[in-house]
Amino acid sequence: MKNFNYFTPKSLSEVQDVLARYPEGGVLMAGGTDLLVQMKSKAIAPECLVDLKGLGLSYIRHTGGGLAIGGTTTLSEIESSTLIKEKCPVLAATCSEMASYSIRHLATIGGNLCNAAPSADTAPPLMVLGSRVRIIGLEGERIVPVEEMFTGPGETVLKRGEILTEIQIPDLPPHSGAVYLKYKRNEGMDLALVGVAISMVLNSSRTTCREIQIALGAVAPTPIRASVAEEVLRGNQLKEDLFEETAIKAREAAQPLTDVRCSAAYRTALGEKLTLDALWQVRKLAIDKKEA
Ligand SMILES: Cc1cc2nc3c(=O)[nH]c(=O)nc-3n(C[C@H](O)[C@H](O)[C@H](O)COP(=O)(O)OP(=O)(O)OC[C@H]3O[C@@H](n4cnc5c(N)ncnc54)[C@H](O)[C@@H]3O)c2cc1C
Known about the structure:
The chain is of the alpha+beta class and 292 residues long. The chain has three domains: 5-51, 2-Layer Sandwich (Uridine Diphospho-n-acetylenolpyruvylglucosamine Reductase, domain 2); 60-170, Uridine Diphospho-n-acetylenolpyruvylglucosamine Reductase, domain 3, CATH 3.30.465.10; 177-288, CO dehydrogenase flavoprotein, C-terminal domain (Enolase-like, domain 1, 2-Layer Sandwich), CATH 3.30.390. 35% of the residues lie in helices and 25% in strands. Strands 4-5-10-6-7 form a five-stranded antiparallel sheet. Strands 11-12-13-14 form a four-stranded antiparallel sheet. Flavin-adenine dinucleotide is lined by residues 27-35, 37, 52, 71-72, 98-99, 103, 106-108, 110-112, 114-115, 119-121, 158, 163-164, 189, 191.
């Protein structure tokens, strides 16, 4: 690995000062669990790493209308947070299934989104929950829906020097639920072959799907919404044949690649199967949900 300088700024303006000194070779780092792998394989060779963990961006708060999670909050802090388990159990469950116990103590939610792997596990659940990210850079602050963040494998809308400071997740309405199902190669650590997240809101008699959002990971260059599939159920009764049609439409949204993990055809078939399983699980969650 090439030598590099390492900085631990204590404020956002200090980050910008360091980056200004390295106009080509300065790279932001949170947990480093993606970055250091890329550096070791020589995919990247930064002149300097700017560590974001001293910026005070590790927090989990409930703001009234929803959760606010700081960009450098670790996956382990999220999976063990009582607040997240209460307000957004799908995110706690998702984080608990990622990587290994030790990696989750380093890896951050902001890093998972900014690394923008098509298989990034936190992306599909955050998308179906209508989450947004706060981004701060030299030109000021902007809020971007998670769904609009990804522009290609490893690419996002973030410009050079911009920092993802916060993830904002609105509270789920009454009679609703959300699930994320991930299929991977074995019981140990592995990235998703396919991941499917679904959020569903039922009417007050819990017989009709008032709103549904479906997102798939690892089946396209970026995590995607399956909007055509959502239309099959939106406003309709919770019937088995509609669930099957929804899963078929979700499969049709996929444009997967064949890679070392599995074939494109296998990913396509998995997308349908996981969507169907997720529909039945989210239906049960929404029907059984106890309202405060
Ligand atoms: C063995 C192993 C298993 C893994 N298993 C999984 C898995 O099951 N599921 C999964 O989705 N991922 C997995 N990963 C990938 C990785 O752990 C996650 O993507 C992790 O969340 C990345 O977070 P990080 O803080 O380590 O990011 P870093 O490596 O620090 O950064 C990743 C990228 O994001 C940028 N960045 C980081 N934070 C910010 C920010 N706040 N603002 C702007 N840019 C930022 C960095 O510049 C870099 O380009 C695994 C990795 C390993 C090594």
